[in-house]
Structures are given as C-alpha cells and as structure tokens.
Amino acid sequence: MNHTPVVFxxxxxxxxxxxxLWAERFAGRGFLTSTPGWPGEGTSAEPRTSSVTLAxxxxxxxxAHYAEIVRSFEVSPVIVGHSVGGLIAQHLIGADMGRAAxxxxxxxxxxxxxPDSSAxxxxxxxxxxxxxxxxxxxxxxxxxxxxxVAAEESYRLFERYAGPAPRRLVAELGPAGRAYGPRAVVxxxxxxxxxxxxxxxxxxxxxxxxxxxxxYKAYGDSRxxxxxxxxxxxxxxxVIDNGWRFVxxxxxxxxxxxxxxxxxxxx
Length: 267
Known about the structure:
Blueprint: E1 5-9, H1 20-28, E2 32-34, H2 51-55, H3 59-71, E3 78-82, H4 84-94, E4 100-104, H5 116-122, E5 133-134, H6 138-145, H7 151-161, E6 165-166, H8 167-172, E7 196-201, H9 209-218, E8 226-231, H10 244-257
Parallel strand pairs: 1-2, 1-3, 3-4, 4-7, 7-8
Antiparallel strand pairs: 5-6
C-alpha cells in the first residue's frame, strides 16, 4: 500500500538540509518524505545552488516549482513549509493541492504587512546585494533567526543550514506596499481545501508571532479546518534548533488528530 507523502519546503536563507531531521522523524513514523530544494538546488547531501540559478528565483517561480512536485505524487501529500515555504504551502492548499498543509513561521500573506522590527532584513536595498543575492552574516543569523539559542549553537546552525537568498524574492517579501506576483495570493476563503496548521514562535524576530496570528485571523471566514499553535520562547530557527523535535512531534500529533495516517486507510 502506498504511504502518505510529506513534502517539506524550506524558507529563505536556509537550504534543503534544514529538513534532514524532520524527514528522518517522519519517515520513522511511516510517511514517505521528500525534501525537494528550490529550482536548481541539489540534494540534501550537496544542497548548494548556483548563484546564477538562485538569483533569478521569485515567488511565482517557487510556487510553480512546488505545485508541479505536489501534483506528481499518486497519493495526495501533506505539505510542510517554513518561512516563505509556509506561504507556498498555504497557496498550494488554498488551490486544492495537497491533503493538508503546515505553515511554520510563514512569510506574511499579501495583505499582512511586514513589521518594522524585521523590515530592515527584508528590505532589498541592503548592502551586499550587488550580485543579486542577499546573504546573512553569522551575527545577523543569530539576531534574527536563532535569537533564542546560545551563540555557539547559532553558529553551528549557520554553518550547517544557512545560504544566500535571491534579491528578487527578498524584495517581493519586503516592506508593505510592494506588490506580490499574482500567483502569490492565497485563497483564504476556500471551504473545500484540506486542513491547515499555522505555527509561530513567540520570540520570532523575522516573522513575529503577531504576524502569524494575523494570518490565522485572515482565515476566520473559511469553513475549512484551520488551527494555530504558538510555541513559547522559540524563534525563527524552531525547525532546526535543539527544540525541533517538539515542533515536529506536535505536527505528527496534529496529523493524527486530523485523521491523516502514514498509510491511507490504515488505523
């Protein structure tokens, strides 16, 4: 019998290796796991993307890329996304792709503004973007991503998982007032979609908890199942830092409650 696939979508300034522990955890529970990178990105063993390919990626292209992947499975997959991956997961489930979706610290929807506290990081005019890529220093990674862990752990996470982001994409996700591509609009009113879980870290400086709560409220008029889980004392690195297992196991428990099994029709 076919196993339920889970497609993991990583976010900005991370690479596909950021899901390596999650993939192992979900596979151990019987799910068929997939961690496809962005267009041109390699495998989890060799994830780096060429700067030429990466620099041209925008939100529309990422959505199209993952829509094709999700449609390729015989069994409708669960979609789990972090940061911009969480926005993509919402778009796909809102377009009736996927069995269910989990959006972890998701980049804001088109009508939810980026807060001033993180706008500087998203701003496309930052220094260091002349090559069309935006990079973070270890210090910025600790300040915005891994602010709830010790500096030593933050540096290890940076060395293992961090990567550059396309300037084009960062601009599209930037300060309020910038227009997203037409395919980035999420259908928050779709009553026929699969269930959606939104997750926030209450100490997140890049996508603050208030932003995720605002996204949750945007689904208020939909009759489709939408849930919110807030993790106290967690930052944007909640999918890769030492507390990742608590988040992953919560997602596994939520899938169980929603009747989504590793093997459809069993249990």
